[in-house]
Design the sequence.
């Protein structure tokens, strides 16, 4: 299994958190809320497409909504492979952090 990038991990986690309300705007807002960073739609689309191609997500067009002028939203759902990828990256991160001393900033590292 190929390891997830940090961006891919955050996207999958946002989609898992949003469940049936995971479309590009809500995903972007979730990521901005949690990270405090601005996420461009272009960057999101590229990563979302890659995650769909890798089988970690499915995407489907939702129902047309009047607030979007009748246009449909592309909705994203986490697949079993996406859940497995998240569990694997969590296992790896936990293993890497286990047993390390606390990170305490005491000035420049030498």
Sequence:
């Amino acid at each position: 299994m190929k390891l997830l990038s940090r961006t891919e991990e955050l996207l999958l986690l946002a989609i898992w958190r949003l469940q049936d309300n995971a479309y590009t705007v809500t995903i972007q807002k979730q990521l901005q809320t949690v990270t405090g960073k601005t996420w461009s739609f272009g960057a999101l689309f590229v990563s979302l497409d890659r995650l769909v191609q890798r089988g970690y997500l499915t995407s489907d067009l939702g129902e047309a909504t009047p607030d979007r002028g009748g246009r449909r939203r592309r909705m994203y759902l986490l697949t079993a492979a996406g859940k497995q990828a998240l569990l694997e990256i969590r296992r790896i991160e936990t293993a890497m952090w286990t047993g390390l001393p606390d990170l305490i900033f005491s000035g420049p590292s030498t």
Q: What stands out?
A: The beta strands are 57-64, 72-78. The radius of gyration is 17 Å.
